[in-house]
Amino acid sequence: MAIKIKDDIYWIGTIDWEIREFHGYGTPNGSTYNSYLIKDEKNVLIDCAKEYMFEELLIGLKSAKINPEDIDYIVINHSEKDHSGCLEKLIKYTNATIITNEKCKELLELQYNTDGWEYIIVDNNPEINIGKRTLKFIKTPMLHWPDNMVTYSIEDKILFSNDAFGQHVATSERFDYQVEELEVLYDDTKEYFANILLPYRMLVPGAIEALKNLDIEYICPSHGVIWKDHIKDIMEKYLEWSSDEYKNKAVIVYDSMYNSTKKIAYNIGNGLLKGGVEVRIYNTSKTPMNKIMKDILDAKYVLVGSPTLNSNIYHTVAMFLAYMEGLKPSGDKIGVAFGSYGWMEMATGIIKKTFEKLNFKIIEDECLTCRFVPKEEYLSKCYEFGKKLAQMD
Ligand code: FEO
Asked: Which of 242, 142, 240 is nearest to 202 (CA)?
């Protein structure tokens, strides 16, 4: 249903209450695909939704009292299917021209049957007057794809930021000031950052600098809630998350067959705790990878443990390593590989290869691999190792 933001400007997004997985990103709380409508001499729709949300999008348009055929322009800030999946259907209902950039047009044409689609390309003409307002388009490449841009309504002081500043949460709250627990909102935004924007974080300070020159009253992202009361705060948090600064925090990630690797994980963790380090322990069979990555974003230590199974690493740990490697967390971290085995230890070597690719500083110790079941004396060494690790720079 349409929610008014300012006169003639509406959120008409779709809420995906049931999505539980988004290209590897576990979404236990669903997501939203936020579209926005500006009514002016030219009616403008900003971003769309996944293909299967088309009927919901039509309901949003109807509740904003506009017929699809009266839409003049559709701004596509980014061609990923969560914002463009409806386009093929929607274009048939409208006579709309797509406003986008050259790279986004190229990527749309690689994903859809675009015969007959008409475009206004804004690369060299980044402002379009639609009547009482002017829309300004600012490229933000790789936040999240090469085609990303944001749209700024100059007179309304509204930034339509697409993926930037979003969260994957389905809620009925539309604005930050409606969210009771602000820390939960920041946590969801951090998780989104850690799993969507982390590999491109070096581009964030430049983008924030460019946005700081704009007078912004609302940031309207394409996922999650609209920022109104905490715009400065969320920009500062983006700078913090992109800074590669870490906390005195250890994330221990493991899986286990008969609890041997688990015992090593917990005893090292207890040693780290004793040494004053904040500790998080996650089992890769039980925790979505995106939850783990949110904590790894600003952790000093990353410890990964796996049993050796059939001369290889355990499959859930392998999956996590591949996921983490793609997101390229800061190399300014300490990496520890550990695990248990029966007759041939193979898993830690595979873990260390990932650490090497990420430029983690690898710490070795004799207590990190255990044949079969770790006994009391062995686990004491793990505990002492954790305490020693807590003092390392
Ligand atoms: Fe929300 Fe990169 O798509």
From this structure: 242
